[in-house]
Amino acid sequence: MTLVVDDVRLAHAPDRRVSVVCDGGRIVAIEAAGTVPDGGADTEHLDGRGALALPGLVDAHAHVDKTLYSGPWVPTPSLGTVSERIARERRERERFGLPREEYISALVERMVANGTTRIRTHTDVDPGVGLRGIETVARVAERYRDVVTIEQVAFPQGGLISNPGTLELLEQAVALGVPTIGGIDPAVVDRAPTVQLDALFDLAARTGCGIDIHLHEDGSLGAWEFEEIATRTIAYGMAGRVVISHAFGIAHPPTQERLIARLAEAGVALATAAVYDVPVPPLLALDAAGVPLACGSDGIRDLWGPFGDGDMLRRAMLVAYRNSVRTDEGLELALRAATTGGAGVLGVQDHGLDVGCVADLVLVDARNAAEAVASVPPRRVVVSRGRVVAMDGTLTAKV
């Protein structure tokens, strides 16, 4: 079935009304509005009524395996450190049956209804849970494969070196087809920073997988770890395949300029969630240096916290807000982090609103991309791979 999305304005060209022709899951033509003839029974026309078309939203950093979405309300105690939150999650996850397919499915449906067409999710792997999370998320990903692409990172939340057997589980996950492995705070969580980083890069070199490392450490320690990651990325020839998530250490002015230049040289990307009051990577400086920036939801209604709805347009707004940007240029950069830029960080180059791109687009009522980010309008229509999958905030596609 060919889908013609009539009378829309593209985010990068909002002054022109066009029709977007989708066939075989891709954008095959962009014509002046109203000029695409009716193709008969094999063509569906959707009246965009002058809406603004955004590229499909990309959540480049989620933890869907942890979610309690659609489940019970679980109060969150006041805990001060990442280590305390990890410990609490380890104690409580079995009590709530996590990871739970029902909750993950409900969350994925909400994310798609909000316009997300691609997700990278960090799935816990450790001797306690084994590969159960990987297998559970894989089943959900298969069920929803026609409406959203879900990519997993095998993530050693509780530590890689300090948790014997975890490294072997990461390798098993890669053998099952997981394309990326994770790490976390090599100095604070494992207290063996060079050992953790060497293990991750050695495994990636042997298997061809990517690396996405949670780095909450800041100050001089965080800056040193940035340098170590950049050095290994160059040494292993992994430019474009390494991401630092959260990246608190780059937010401090004394070392910021040097670290940004180092990441650009090494080809390391950043992913931010812009949650709570934590440091946020500098949007404008990263863009000026050519360092790719993605963003994501992080945890959504889980044992770490009560917030989140999987709305990546709202996340783009928060990235802009936390960066104190007020210009249209800054707002558009934040949207890029949640769309084409985020896709690029995940290694996807055919994401956008050009002929030849995958036909993922989101229709909203806004005059331009900057207004869409600033006002976070409802998603009127979501198209994934040339198929209407959600309308007015509700999943309509059968899965």
TrEMBL record:
Coiled coil: none annotated. It comes from the Bacteria. Residues 102-390 form the Amidohydrolase domain. PANTHER family: BLL3847 PROTEIN, CYTOSINE DEAMINASE. This is Amidohydrolase. It comes from Microbacterium capsulatum.
